[in-house]
Amino acid sequence: MMSDSDDDVPTLSAHTLAALQEFYAENLTLQSPSTEPQEQFSVGAIEEDWGLSQFWYSEDTAQRLAEELVREAGDGGRIACVSAPSVYQKLKQGVVTGSEHVSVMVLEYDRRFASYGADFIFYDYNQPLALPPHVQPHSFDVVLADPPYLSHECLSKVAQTVQFLSKGKVLLCTGAVMQSSAKELLDVNVCGFLPQHHRNLSNDFRCYTNYPSALQETETGQRDTSLTQM
User: Which of the residues 7, 61, 109, 174 could staple to 178 if both were Cys, CB 3.0 to 4.6 A apart?
Assistant: First the structure.
């Protein structure tokens, strides 16, 4: 993740990207190494860096989103978490039913997450399609994305990545102020489920899907109509 002002970023060749991926996978380790999955992949094993606009989800939200991804990916499905490492971590803890039957990759600008080995893909939203050669188009059954910034420019670039990766199903987490842009760029609808963060944020946060989902219902089981499309 980078600031919106960092426009002049050099473009790396596919060969260079692949070499970097291999280097980081082999040489970086977790801040607090552990052989226990629940510790190694705990939300917070890698601390938030607010300078990178990192705000981890609460345990309950990470659990709920991980369950949603497993359900929608299906047995043997593939999941991509774009700038949403806390959900990736929850999926790898072994506490979500069915998570052992899916594969998941985390796309992140923060190279500390390269400690997760081959699951890590270096990702800079300013270069939305600068992905390593082994990442094939439309190869993920469901894609979760949480753009680092609440701007149309950031979301439009992340949307390019999502559309490249996804076979169809998209789960987007971003601010309520991005509802109109989210609908325009990814044809997603706002959900009744309200994501929460480990640290309270001042921004009104929402999740969106482009498919029928239980997340589109409120806690009472009724479909949320409190937010209409802008």
Answer: 174
pLDDT value for 109:
93
Residue 204 burial class via C-beta count within 10 angstroms: exposed 0-12, middle 13-18, buried 19 and up: exposed
At 42 the three-state DSSP class reads coil
Dist CA 37 CA 51 (whole Å):
28
Q: Count CB neighbours of 31 within 10 A.
A: 11
Residue 168 is classified by DSSP as: E
Which two three-digit tokens encode residue 112? 């500390």
C-alpha 72/C-alpha 210 separation (Å) is: 12
CB 52 within 8 A of CB 1: yes
Q: How far apart are CA 107 and CA 198, in angstroms?
A: 20
Mean of pLDDT values over 199-211: 83
Specify burial of residue 184 (Cβ count, 10 A radius: 0-12, 13-18, 19+). Answer: middle
Would you place residue 1 in the very low, low, confident or very high pLDDT band (cuts 50, 70, 90)?
very low
pLDDT tens for each residue of 78-127: 999 999 999 999 999 999 999 999 999 999 998 988 999 999 999 999 99
**Which region holds residue 83: left if phi is over 0, alpha if psi is between -120 and 50, else beta?**
left
Please tell me the predicted confidence (pLDDT) of residue 112: 87
Tokens coding 217: 């219902």
Sheet holding 205-209, edge to edge: 120-122, 103-108, 78-82, 140-145, 166-175, 205-209, 189-190
Residue 187, pLDDT above cutoff 90: yes
